[in-house]
Amino acid sequence: MSLQIDYEKELDALDLAAQPPQEEPKRQYYYLKKCRMLVAKMSEELGRPLTASTVTFGCQMNARDSEKLAGMLEKIGYQMVEGEEADFVIYNTCTVRENANLRVYGRLGVLHNQKKKNPHMLIALCGCMMQEPDVVEKLKKSYRFVDLIFGTHNIYKFAELLSARLESNDMIIDIWKDTDQIVEDLPVERKYSFKSGVNIMFGCNNFCSYCIVPYVRGRERSREPKDIIREIERLVEDGVVEVMLLGQNVNSYGKNLEQPMTFAQLLQEAEKIEGLKRIRFMTSHPKDLSDELIEVMAKSEKICHHMHLPLQSGSSRILKIMNRRYTKEQYLELTEKLRRAIPDISLTTDIIVGFPGETEEDFEETLDVVRKVRYDSAFTFIYSKRTGTPAAAMEDQVPEEVIKPRFDRLLKEVQKISKEMSSRMTGQTVPVLVEEINDHDSSLVTGRLDNNLLVHFKGDASLIGKIVDVHLDECKGFYYMGTMR
Ligand code: SAH
Ligand code: SF4
Ligand code: F3S
Fold it and tell me: Is residue 1 pLDDT above 90, yes or no?
């Protein structure tokens, strides 16, 4: 028997003349059906199908949210397209750093021009930026052409909000401060047929002093293990071979469940799913990474030997002010432990340069960790002041002219090591998940190694979604050229 939800059957069973159901997800099925009717009418008047597009900024969480939006849009009857030439454009925004935020305003101007040419066009904004009251005020005042604004907590209500917009003509704004609700079983349209993100938790309780995420994503909430496992089983039945378990701090998964469960236990449950070949996860907070997890990873046949372990700073003094709750020494010990248990593990990280009060000595400590750990790759960020976070109010903000040279020095070091680390598998034959036809040379396909690096080799579209053995002939800096065996 199929595990998939028969949405058509669910929608058929609902009577639009009756009051909308109170319970979820039935209520949203009702509004999906209603939107479908309204959109079909518009499409008939125009004599063509209506198109929609989601444009995603920010992290994997947002990417997954956009897939949920796309799932609902498809059920409503929109044809999904890429880019901004569509009858309905949704910006799923990020506000983790100032520049992510500014980019959205810039592109809104472009959308406005498009809307002038296409009076049927709808524009929606959602995601983390919308959880900031100042942003919504600004939009209300100066961006009246936006049709629909909602936040991170009520994305599941998308169909209900869209139906309100289609029936009124007013700008619809619905932002919740927080929620403890998790609505399951809504349609999702995946970007890739063979791999998928799976949310295991929402929100964050860590309040690192520079970070806005806990304010815009709310308190930490874990999904029930049975819901997560069922979702993965459905995905596997639908052709998925690799999942990425998503959370801001996956290592604290399950602590607040009625029947607590550790992340390592959840991984063991996922491991049992037949047909699932690879398991990844993001992000691990060093303070909560357990020995149990390391042990489970070391034994596992499916969990990829890759750990993204954000460092942020190598200075114990700065880490304390960042409220990261580990020291330089503890972090180094942890990475040594990981390498002892899983010798071929690939370690990647996030680093912030120029946190308030960072001295040359502090920065040298960061460089020291980078040299000792030898990351496969690292995302490096210039500290960005986020209003409302404790760090934004700190007095000793570091001037840009001091940060920039440090950032450049760090980047150089990171890249040098990363190049050396990347090539360490040359000559080996390894399993690779084939993801796509190569952008530049259509006789090649691109596959992903367990450690997240890419390899290009001769092949065709029939290989996409398959795991095949590839000999790594040559490392070209950050990727390989290979031959299928
Ligand atoms: N939950 C993850 C990170 C989510 S945000 C974790 O704890 O590791 C992704 C990355 O953005 C962070 O790791 C951090 O390096 C960076 N970041 C967050 N806030 C920032 C800020 N105010 N300025 C610069 N970088 C920031
Ligand atoms: Fe932000 Fe820290 Fe939470 Fe990560 S753990 S999302 S850096 S507050
Ligand atoms: Fe950005 Fe929100 Fe993710 S602020 S990094 S999209 S959680």
Answer: no
**How much is the average pLDDT of 315-328?**
98
Q: Is the CB of 313 under 6 A from ligand 2?
A: no
User: Which string of b and e fits 243-259 if b means at least 16 CB within 10 Å?
Assistant: bbbbbbbbbbbbeeeee
DSSP E strand stretches across 188-231: 195-199, 201-202, 221-222
Q: Which residues pair with 80 in a beta bridge?
A: 52
Angle between helices 360-373 and 400-422 (to 10 degrees): 10
Q: Which of 418, 336, 407 is nearest to 378 (CA)?
A: 418
Backbone angles phi, psi at 85, to 5 degrees: -90, 85
HSE (side-chain half, CA atoms, 13 Å) at 112: 12
Report the alpha-carbon distance of residue 211 to residue 208 in Å, rounded: 5
Please give the C-alpha separations between residue 128 and each of 135, 341, 475, in angstroms, as whole numbers.
10, 37, 38
Distance, CA 96 to ligand 1 centroid (Å)?
A: 7
Atom number in ligand 1 closest to CA 249:
1
Question: Relative to the alpha carbon of 389, which ligand is closest?
Answer: 1
Q: Tokens 């700065």 map to which residue?
A: 318
Residue burial 62-98, b: 16+ Cβ < 10 Å; e: rest? bbbbbbbbbbbbbbbbbebeeeeebbbbbbbbbbbbe
Average pLDDT over residues 405-425: 96
Instruction: Determine the average pLDDT of the residues in 129-137.
Output: 97
| Residue 370 pLDDT > 90 | yes
